[in-house]
């Protein structure tokens, strides 16, 4: 995707909204949780090479934050990683992989929206889930919580790639999530059922159109403007899905359509 030249006032708006300024740096878990709650959703450890807000960028407090090769020796990367781990344990925001192998935090108020779009029912599990995912889910429904090594053993999935793909599939479908991180010689995730942490949110019903509109609203409030394909790329939605959400905001007079595919927060003065 080519680099987009946004208007200066939009970049300044994002600097403040996404904590890309030194005085707004996110340096502890409480501040990170407030950031997620305000934005609605936020990538965990992406840098400025990816669009959208990011916990790592907020920890760095600057626009041009780039993840170094050796993250273990970099203080900003280490702090972002530690805050991410503590947020997983506290479970005040949803954490998981939605698309493209990138992990995101989602505020509780929007978990229902994303689940409406990506979650599957018990009845659908048999029809659409892989056999490996079914085995893992069966084990967790029996034990409720297992470490990665114990879950691999209990499910009988010896191949690491197959196991990882199944775990990613279950996260995308809002079935499992990491509930803790343990460092005992090496990093190990503890896996739990999503319903054990977000039962109420998973039972809220809404239309797909309403879910898309509120996700688009959350992003536009934080970004000030969305460029062509930006909302889809940040959230994992398809371009038509993102368009439905953005057009609903235009119909509500919450956003203005600047040019095809570009939407701007109504309250901001247009400069294009």
Protein topology:
Blueprint: H1 8-17, H2 29-39, E1 41-43, H3 55-60, H4 75-90, E2 93-99, E3 102-107, H5 108-118, H6 122-128, H7 131-143, E4 145-147, H8 148-155, H9 160-172, E5 176-184, E6 186-193, H10 194-202, H11 208-223, E7 225-226, H12 230-235, H13 239-251, E8 255-259, E9 262-265
Antiparallel strand pairs: 1-3, 2-3, 4-6, 5-6, 7-9, 8-9
Question: What can you see in these coordinates?
Answer:
Helices cover 51% and strands 17% of the residues. It contains 13 helices and 9 strands. The longest helix has 16 residues, at 75-90. It is globular and about 60 Å long. The mean pLDDT is 92.
The spatial strand order of the largest sheet comes to 1-3-2
Number of helices: 13
Mean pLDDT: 92
How many β-strand runs?
A: 9
Q: Roughly what fraction of the amino acids lie in strands? A: 15-25%
Low-confidence stretches: none
Please summarize what this structure is.
The chain has 272 residues and is an alpha+beta fold. It is 51% helix and 17% strand.
Features:
272 residues; alpha+beta; three-stranded antiparallel sheet; 51% helix; 17% strand
């Amino acid at each position: 995707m080519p680099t987009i030249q946004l208007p200066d006032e939009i970049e300044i708006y994002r600097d403040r909204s996404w904590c890309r300024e030194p005085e707004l740096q996110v340096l502890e878990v409480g501040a990170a949780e407030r950031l997620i709650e305000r934005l609605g959703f936020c990538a965990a450890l992406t840098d400025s090479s990816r669009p959208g807000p990011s916990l790592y960028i907020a920890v760095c407090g600057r626009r041009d934050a780039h993840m170094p090769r050796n993250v273990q020796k970099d203080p900003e990367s280490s702090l972002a990683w530690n805050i991410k781990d503590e947020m997983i344990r506290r479970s005040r925001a949803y954490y998981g992989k939605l698309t493209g192998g990138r992990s995101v935090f989602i505020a509780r108020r929007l978990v229902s929206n994303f689940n409406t779009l990506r979650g599957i029912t018990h009845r659908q599990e048999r029809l659409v889930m892989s056999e490996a995912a079914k085995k893992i889910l069966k084990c967790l429904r029996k034990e409720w919580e297992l470490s990665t090594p114990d879950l691999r053993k209990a499910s009988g999935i010896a191949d690491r790639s197959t196991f990882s793909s199944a775990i990613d599939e279950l996260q995308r479908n809002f079935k499992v999530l990491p509930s803790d991180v343990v460092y005992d010689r090496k990093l190990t995730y503890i896996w739990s059922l999503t319903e054990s942490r977000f039962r109420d949110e998973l039972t809220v019903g809404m239309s797909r159109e309403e879910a898309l509109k509120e996700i688009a609203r959350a992003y536009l409030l934080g970004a000030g403007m969305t460029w062509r394909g930006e909302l889809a790329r940040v959230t994992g939605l398809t371009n038509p899905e993102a368009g439905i959400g953005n057009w609903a905001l235009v119909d509500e007079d919450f956003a203005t359509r600047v040019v095809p595919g570009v939407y701007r927060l109504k309250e901001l003065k247009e400069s294009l």
